[in-house]
Amino acid sequence: MGPHDTINLVIISTAAISILAIIFGLGLAIASKVFAIDTDPRVDKVLENLPGANCGACGTAGCSSLAEAIVKGEKPIDACPVITPEARKIIGDVMGVNVVQKERSVAVLLCNGGNSVGEKHRYSGVPDCQAAALLHGGYKLCDYGCLGLGTCSEACPFEAIMMGDDGLPEVLEERCKACGKCVEACPKGLFVIQPLSKAVHVRCKSCDKGAYTKKVCPAGCIGCKKCEKECPVQAIKVDNFLARIDYGKCIACGKCAKVCPQGAIADFRKARKSGVPIPSAVAFTAKETAGSGQAGGEVTA
């Protein structure tokens, strides 16, 4: 084969590839028109105003799925709990819906024990609260309290929870979006989502008798009913050895917190004004009790 034949072969091959490329390109262009799926332009506009965190707090796979669900009417405008009021209004305008702004909510931890609560055994397994809770309900002497291994902190997609030196999670309320991931992550059910106006909380969930609670935790509710007697609107009642607040009645006067001998009831208003992470600014001041020492041996998971 001579040099001219080689050149001709190269030219023919290049031309054939170019023609095939054009044919395939035209085919794909035609197919994209023929098989195109019409999308509602509102989906993109709604998606632009969602946070893009894909945290799943809305109950969908992510922000894209939520945008489609909102446009289809399968989810309400305010389905995203972490969206800003401004973005919520824009989405409402896109959908032609008048959006009523909600009061901002944050996560609240209902435990005040932390490192002051002794241990049934020494846990040396996976540093995860859910794993630790599988062994006899956890290694703390209080079966209702925080295990302090930081699973809630790891679950928070907004870095709004950090572990304090006292062994308790601290909620950075300026970052908290009330997504509820901490609520799902805590095996003890110690987190609740509450509006900021609900400033007084019983930071204990123990239903043990008062004598035992006082023995193992210097900050636990002992069911003494002093708070119940002090409340001017009967908004707090002791049921099953635990004080419980009816927020439909509560006026956030804080009187129950002042009379609690264990410091189990906290008034968050001062802490919120100071900007100190919760619960550092509302730490209990109750005296230590002799029964909060460690007991038992070591358990490995």
CATH class of the largest domain: Alpha Beta
SSE class: alpha+beta
Taking the sheet with the most strands, its summary is: 2 strands, antiparallel
From the N-terminal CA to the C-terminal CA, the straight-line distance is 76 Å
Overall number of domains: 2
Radius of gyration, in Å, reads 29 Å
Describe this structure in words.
This protein has helices at 3-34, 41-48, 63-72, 85-95, 129-133, 151-155, 181-185, 210-216, 226-230, 255-259, 269-274, and strands spanning 105-109, 122-123, 161-163, 169-171, 191-195, 200-202, 236-239, 242-245, 265-267, 298-299. It is α+β, with helices and mostly antiparallel strands. The protein folds into two domains: 41-95, Orthogonal Bundle (3-methyladenine DNA Glycosylase II, Chain A, domain 3), CATH 1.10.15; 105-299, Alpha-Beta Plaits (2-Layer Sandwich). The chain is elongated and about 105 Å long. The model is unreliable at 283-301 (pLDDT under 50).
